[in-house]
């Protein structure tokens, strides 16, 4: 069966409706781009860079409020010290492989200067997960040009998923993983807000994998679809980016980032000792001018949702995260990489069969 998205299989999760694209780009202004690097010579590499621009070209001049959360911190996300301090996101967010964080971080700084960004200096957000099982990570294949390509290719509209960008060589729940996205629209009073998620999924045990609560991972054993590892294991990491057009303050963004944990848990992520499970949430509901020496000192008017309005936003974040992870799994294709190792895609016909059978049993 050709690779599709979860809903194309007739499988829905959650109770809220997605946005038109069911993607993080349902939030106006958000753009996503990928640079995918696949080569067998001189080194076997399966890697790349994914870029998320919170406000398109205005990312440098109309900053966003943001918050971060570390569910388990065996990983890297640069720029978070300033976000924790000031709650301001003034750069794109890039995701790549573990050994390329420095290169991509420096590339974003150079890209900002090339674009004439007004900040005196740059502390961009770059996160990682490790693709060294399928890619020769020690050959350091990612260059500044790859980061620039991801940034330059960032567009609104549908988002490519699976074996693309930073997710090219990733493995999730012992199936081929990668990039996935989803969104949810939620009514809060008279307003309707959107929450979108984009994940780089590279974590998890197969036996814990659930789709809409159905224990799919237990039903598809290694005798049916081989595990990539010599022995079954729960390892790896996940990066989750949440975006919303709801007007949130930094502390509310931090609270939103924490709710990605719920969506991750629904799929079967538990935050193991060796996981780098790092989450960032930003809001485009306020446009904050960049801080500059000698700049205006007058107060800036901002909007925020009342605390009581946050619960439906939290639900939207959890549901979007859950479906984004499942879209990453469903979109990813079987890949053979470094040293002949193979990560098999989840079989879509079996996935559909298992979920359909479980739902039919519940409806009796």
Please supply descriptive tags for the structure shown above.
364 residues; alpha+beta; L-amino peptidase D-ALA esterase/amidase; 4-stranded mixed β-sheet
Structure description:
With 364 residues, the protein is of the alpha+beta class. The protein has one domain: L-amino peptidase D-ALA esterase/amidase, CATH 3.60.70. It has helices at 80-86, 101-114, 144-152, 216-219, 250-258, 260-267, 310-331, 348-363; strands at 31-39, 45-53, 63-73, 88-89, 93-97, 125-129, 171-172, 175-176, 178-188, 191-202, 237-244, 276-288, 335-336, 342-343. The strands form four sheets. It has a six-stranded mixed β-sheet. Strand 7 (171-172) and strand 8 (175-176) form a beta hairpin. Helix 2 crosses helix 3 and helix 6 crosses helix 7. The longest helix is centred in the last third of the chain and has 22 residues, at 310-331. The two termini are 29 Å apart. The model has no long low-confidence stretch (mean pLDDT 95).
């Amino acid at each position: 069966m050709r690779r599709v998205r979860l809903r194309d299989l007739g499988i829905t999760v959650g109770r809220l409706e997605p946005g038109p694209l069911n993607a993080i780009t349902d939030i106006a202004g958000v753009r996503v781009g990928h640079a995918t690097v696949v080569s067998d010579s001189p080194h076997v590499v399966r890697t790349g860079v994914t870029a998320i621009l919170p406000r398109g070209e205005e990312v440098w001049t109309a900053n966003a409020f943001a918050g971060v959360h570390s569910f388990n911190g065996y990983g890297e996300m640069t720029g978070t010290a300033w976000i924790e301090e000031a709650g301001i996101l003034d750069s794109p967010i890039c995701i790549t492989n573990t050994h390329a964080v420095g290169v991509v971080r420096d590339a974003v700084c150079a890209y900002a200067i090339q674009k004439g960004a007004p900040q005196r200096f740059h502390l961009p957000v770059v996160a990682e997960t490790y693709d060294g099982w399928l890619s020769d990570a020690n050959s350091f294949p990612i260059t500044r040009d790859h980061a620039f390509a991801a940034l330059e290719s960032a567009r609104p509209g549908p988002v490519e998923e699976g074996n693309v960008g930073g997710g090219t060589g990733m493995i999730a729940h012992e199936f081929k993983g990668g990039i996935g996205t989803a969104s949810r629209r939620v009514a809060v009073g008279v307003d309707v807000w959107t929450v979108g998620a984009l994940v780089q999924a590279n974590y998890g045990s197969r036996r814990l994998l659930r789709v809409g609560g159905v224990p799919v991972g237990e039903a598809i054993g290694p005798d049916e679809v081989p595990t990539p590892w010599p022995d079954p294991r729960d390892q790896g990491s996940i990066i989750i980016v949440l975006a919303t057009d709801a007007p949130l303050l930094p502390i509310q963004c931090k609270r939103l980032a924490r709710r990605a944990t719920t969506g991750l848990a629904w799929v079967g992520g538990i935050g193991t000792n060796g996981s780098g499970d790092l989450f960032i949430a930003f809001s485009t509901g306020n446009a904050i001018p960049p801080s500059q020496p000698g700049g205006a000192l007058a107060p800036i008017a901002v909007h925020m949702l009342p605390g009581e309005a946050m619960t439906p936003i939290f639900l939207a974040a959890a549901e979007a995260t859950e479906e984004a992870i499942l879209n990453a799994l469903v979109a990813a294709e079987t890949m053979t990489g470094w040293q002949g190792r193979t990560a098999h895609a989840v079989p879509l016909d079996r996935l559909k069969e298992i979920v359909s059978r479980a739902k039919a049993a519940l409806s009796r």
